[in-house]
Amino acid sequence: MKAADGSEDALRQVVVAEALNALSPAHREVLTETVMRRRTVNEAADILGIPVGAVKVRVYYALRALRILLEERGVTT
């Protein structure tokens, strides 16, 4: 259930932001480029100056770490 005043959504945003900040800088930057800025893996690789394969691996492990951090904070999907 969502609170009528949006406080639950605001709280969820804070928790997600805290979880993102808890990630390593490498994981945070790859998620920023691929998820938040909606860049392709190839675009993210060019911007970050790393191989495409490294982007794919980092995204996989970053999402895995983020999922664990969110679960620890009581956020479920």
TrEMBL record:
Every RNA polymerase sigma-70 region domain range: 19-67
The record's listing under InterPro entries reads: RNA_pol_sigma70_r4 (IPR007630), RNA_pol_sigma_r3/r4-like (IPR013324), WH-like_DNA-bd_sf (IPR036388)
User: What SUPFAM superfamilies is this protein classified in?
Assistant: Sigma3 and sigma4 domains of RNA polymerase sigma factors
**Name of the featured protein:** Sigma factor-like helix-turn-helix DNA-binding protein
Q: Which organism is it from?
A: Actinoallomurus acaciae
